[in-house]
Design brief:
Keywords: Membrane, Transmembrane, Transmembrane helix. This is Integral membrane protein. By secondary structure, the protein is mainly α. It has a single domain, classed as Ammonium transporter fold, CATH 1.10.3430. It is globular. The N terminus is likely disordered.
Length: about 375
């Protein structure tokens, strides 16, 4: 990445911070109509940041946002201990976050009525799908941020809601299959629309930051760092600092009230255990693929197969190990294979969420035929 683009994106970053704050406040006021009732709405937005990991906790959401902000601050100043580059190494973390937050706000405003029955609905979906990837594909200007937020909020929630609430019960598969499948379909629709928008005429692709020598990067320390960073990769953060904030927030929420995170299941410890195992096994197993390319989707089972298996089978030791090991072995190569075959105007995340849906549906339901499930 050359010096001039970095300077420009640092300037855009500073200009975007007020937009991030304005999106949160405006969404809260539109929902509530009063400053005194803003807190519950901000809680919804914060929870959306942790829901891809099955935590659904405002404290975990605040943790991942705070950790991401700290990592971004260190990365922009090229300071030590800055961790892996966020936002796919583009330097666009702040405008990406602005679009993601706007997507959640728009999605809840447009589709919040689906919560009337009291049932859970995946209205967090724009945060980790269409909204941020439009920025990653087309750049950091305000028009792109607004386009990503609006498209993500309008298109993604209904498809994910339909998948989780209608398709999954009929097929007998975990809800994450419908959520991620809805994200994939929504992304195809959204990026097809983007190709026809005159202000999004040029694709902007940026490679990850240059990497050090293989011997230095891919040792035991790197394995632990990469395993930790994968906890926040679904949010396009992919930073150790963001992941530490995410996990710390979830643990604090659990200690305060075990019924708060993990959809009231009380299974947060088992989910974290499964995710930690699948993260380490996946990175170790596919480390050579990381050595040959800037990115490899080892995070896929962390936010799909592993936690879905725990919730489906009650957190038994067998469900923790089976979901973690099978997910680590199958999820990443399937995601990489699908992403490699996508057209250039589709962001590779489509391959990742498609793989989450396919692999989860193939692994989790058949396990009920085995002893211990």
């Amino acid at each position: 990445m050359t010096t001039a683009p970095q300077t420009r994106y640092q300037r855009v970053t500073l200009e975007m911070w007020p937009l991030v704050a304005a999106i949160c406040l405006l969404a809260a006021l539109l929902w509530s109509g009063s400053l005194r009732t803003v807190s519950p709405i901000l809680n919804v937005i914060a929870s959306a940041a942790s829901e891809p990991n099955f935590y659904s906790s405002a404290l975990a959401g605040v943790g991942v946002l705070a950790g991401g902000a700290f990592a971004h601050w260190r990365q922009m100043r090229r300071q030590s201990w800055r961790g892996f580059a966020q936002a796919c190494g583009s330097g666009l973390w702040v405008p990406m976050l602005a679009s993601a937050l706007l997507g959640v706000a728009v999605g809840n405003l447009a589709w919040g009525w689906t919560l009337a029955s009291g049932a859970w609905q995946p209205l967090f979906a724009p945060f980790v799908s269409v909204s941020p990837t439009v920025v990653l594909m087309f750049g950091a200007d305000v028009k792109t941020v607004l386009t990503g937020g609006m498209l993500g909020g309008v298109v993604t929630p209904p498809l994910s809601v339909f998948g989780a609430s209608v398709v999954c019960p009929e097929l007998g598969v975990p809800p994450v299959v419908g959520v991620t499948g809805g994200m994939a379909v929504a992304a195809v629709v959204a990026f097809t629309v983007c190709r026809r928008l005159p202000w999004l005429s040029e694709l902007v692709r940026r490679d990850a930051e240059p990497t050090p020598a293989v011997a230095e990067k891919y040792g035991a320390t790197w394995v632990l760092r990469r395993s930790l960073a994968d906890f926040s990769e679904a949010q396009f953060f992919g930073s150790e600092w963001a992941s530490l904030g995410l996990i710390a927030g979830a643990v604090v929420a659990y200690l305060l009230n075990p019924a708060t995170p993990a959809y009231g299941s009380g299974l947060l410890p088992q989910i974290l255990a499964a995710q930690a195992i699948t993260a380490i096994v996946g990175v170790v197993l596919w480390r050579r693929r990381w050595a040959r390319s800037p990115f490899y989707p080892t995070f896929v089972p962390i936010v799909s197969v592993a936690p879905a298996c725990v919730l489906t089978y009650g957190g038994t030791p067998a469900s923790v190990l089976a979901g973690a090991l099978l997910g680590a072995a199958v999820g990443p190569p399937v995601a990489a294979a699908i992403s490699a075959r996508l057209p250039a105007h589709f962001h590779p995340f489509i391959g990742n969420v498609t793989a989450m849906a396919v692999v989860t549906s193939l692994i989790v339901p058949p396990l009920q035929l085995l002893p211990g499930f």
